Amino acid sequence: MGVVHSIESEYKRYKALADAAIAQVSDAELAHAAPGGGNSIEMMVRHIGGNLQSRFTDFRTSDGEKPWRNRDEEFEAVAPNRSELLEAWETGWKALFGAVSALGDDDLADTVTIRRQPLRIDEALHRSLAHAAYHVGQIVFLAKAMRGDAWRCLSIPRGMSEAFNKKAASGMQTAEAHADWLRNPPSS
């Protein structure tokens, strides 16, 4: 497996975590702000979608901060429409996966520009992956807090480490397989 495939697989893992968390909350819960005036799931979904669409549209040929993107608007509270929200989310991920699928490991030393700053492609991908993972963690945390006892665990459930380790030892060694396991954990 090459570096680009590995990075793409990690993006898929984090998207799967966010998708599974978002699926567990109601439409109204999408708009609940985090404590202390923090962002809602809806805001973070719009932000990640907008960020990915901006960064990965014409990834190699134009600045990753597009003039049509209004980042500040992504953090304004709006009444969520799940369908429209998920459409914006998927548009961003589609732009990302389209750009990444066109890359090979030989491209990683090439340069792209984000906010007028030149970055090697590997640096841009790692920066973007870390950004997405950061916000996905927030989405999962908020969704879990809202669902309480009704939360379906998306990681290794308490008391299930041994079962996970046996499954991992029996061939679950790719990020895709891990993401699938996280979406469908065994019952305790």
Describe this structure in words.
The chain has 188 residues and is mainly α. The protein has two domains: 3-154, dinb family like domain (Four Helix Bundle (Hemerythrin (Met), subunit A)), CATH 1.20.120.450; 155-188, no CATH class. Helix content is 56%, strand content 4%. It is built from seven helices and two strands, in the order ααααββααα. The protein has helices spanning 3-23, 27-30, 41-56, 82-101, 121-147, 161-169, 175-183, and strands at 111-114, 117-120. The protein has a two-stranded antiparallel sheet. A hairpin with a 2-residue loop joins β1 (111-114) and β2 (117-120). α3 runs parallel beside α4 (82-101) and α3 runs antiparallel to α5 (121-147). It is flat and about 45 Å long. The two termini are 33 Å apart. The mean pLDDT is 90.
